[in-house]
């Protein structure tokens, strides 16, 4: 195909092949045209109560982000406003950790209910009393009577050898210079 006549001959042969292919009856199955694809009508949105949405959100977090799930499982949600949920956390740490993920969580909620919900984060005003201020409870391991009766006499153990005399300690002191202090002395 170095010259124009060769190119013209090639084009004529190609057109002939195309014409024969188009005019020949097909031996295969009858031609069926695919039905036009119609967009499926969106299913009516199932309206879930906010509590059910909250449960789905917690289930998703439990699978994908267990640490964040622990923060959300301990917070108190308030669904009084449909467009914004107030999440009250026991401490500032949990509220800040959840607030950093607010955009992703709002998208996750949108994926569940197909409406935008704004998350508002707060720290609970109620503070629990520290354990030190609480009255100490008496604990008992068992209601059984003690096995030993009478007074307990303590016996002093024989004194242990000086730690510096131990061969293993001597070897360590050759590698790491230092001083061995007795257990009852303060540095």
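^ Assign residues to that structure.
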């Amino acid at each position: 195909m170095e010259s124009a006549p060769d190119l013209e001959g090639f084009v004529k042969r190609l057109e002939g092949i195309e014409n024969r292919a188009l005019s020949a009856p097909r031996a295969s199955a009858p031609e069926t045209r695919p039905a036009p694809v119609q967009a499926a009508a969106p299913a009516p949105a199932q309206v879930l109560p906010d509590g059910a949405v909250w449960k789905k959100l917690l289930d998703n977090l439990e699978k994908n982000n267990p640490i964040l799930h622990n923060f959300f499982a301990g917070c108190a949600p308030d669904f009084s406003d449909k467009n914004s949920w107030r999440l009250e956390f026991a401490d500032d740490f949990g509220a800040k950790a959840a607030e950093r993920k607010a955009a992703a969580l709002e998208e996750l909620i949108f994926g569940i209910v197909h409406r935008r919900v704004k998350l508002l984060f707060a720290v609970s005003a109620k503070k629990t009393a520290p354990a030190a201020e609480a009255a100490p409870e008496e604990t008992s391991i068992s209601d059984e009577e003690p096995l030993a009766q009478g007074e307990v006499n303590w016996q002093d153990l024989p004194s242990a050898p000086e730690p510096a005399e131990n061969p293993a300690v001597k070897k360590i002191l050759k590698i790491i210079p230092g001083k061995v202090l007795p257990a009852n002395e303060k540095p």
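Confidence is low (pLDDT under 50) at residues 39-44, 128-132.
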